[in-house]
Amino acid sequence: MGNATIKDVAKMAKVSIATVSLAIHNHERIPQKTKDKVFAAIRELNYHPSHSARGLVKRKSGNIGFILTEDHFLRTEPFYTHIFMGAEFEAHESDFYILLTTINSTFKSDNKLPRFILERNVDGLIIAGKVPKPFINEICKYDFPIVFVDFLPNTKRQYVVLPDNITGGELATNFLIDNGHKKIAFIGGDIEHPSINDRMKGFKNSMKNAGLEVEDNLIDVVEDYPGRANGYIAAERLFKKNKNFSAIFSCNDAMAVGAMQYMKDNGIKIPEECSIIGFDDVVADNAIEPPLSTIRIPKMEMGVEAMKLIVKIINNNSKESSKVLLPVELVKRESVQRL
Predict the structure, then answer these.
(1) Which of 97, 232, 261, 265 has its CA 20 to 30 A from that of 189?
(2) What's the chain's average pLDDT?
């Protein structure tokens, strides 16, 4: 029989739907003789228990909501797409479904929440990247367990998965210093974002430890978003303000690509006249000329760890905050030249 339902199993076994669901989960209240009848019916009907059927006992949907802002879900800058893929792969292992949705980056408190939140059709949420404070305030009213990825919110209980941004900032800066660069500029967007801010902290740490001055006119962090277009604008401002630097550390690869485009448009040779290093290691870096040196973030692993953490919280009803910090790696390519 194709597409058999739990009702069909109950009818064949001559028991209630709730009894079928309890038998599927080997509940101690169900006698072994009844379980045998239920499983005989399941085999004959070739029935596969759905998440909703399991939910009759567990009182869970079997769904995890995955949320990010629209500007983080881009084909050109697929950082968060890889995080989602990691979560999706792990969801299969954990027997959960992932429901993906995006929200507006300017979400207001009177905006409509995602449908699966309003209908309480998820057991927990994974939120990737920075989301507006009004959105966090609204979803916290629903008391779902939430894991934040690549963002550190100011909430009562915090479950977060982050790359080691400070160490990454130090690795990138030390690489430039080890190649003889002393006048190093830093460009960034959305500097209040915890990840971006930590990368700048790493930059300043390394400069200080090497006895090098962090010059204010070599730091450009006024843009509100770390995208390619803003990287171009930041580089333009930087070069017009002060040409007395030999390298740029960009807070991410997207801004680095924008800065590289500005340099190409204005005849500034990379890396002969200015070296540059990014942060993230997105696939598109391999097609850039010259190939971009960067800090590799284990993006898919972040998604995997986020999924493992949300499942652990759901299954154990955890109330303690948890922070998972993943290591990063220096990737040496051709955009940095030794002086």
Answers:
(1) 265
(2) 89
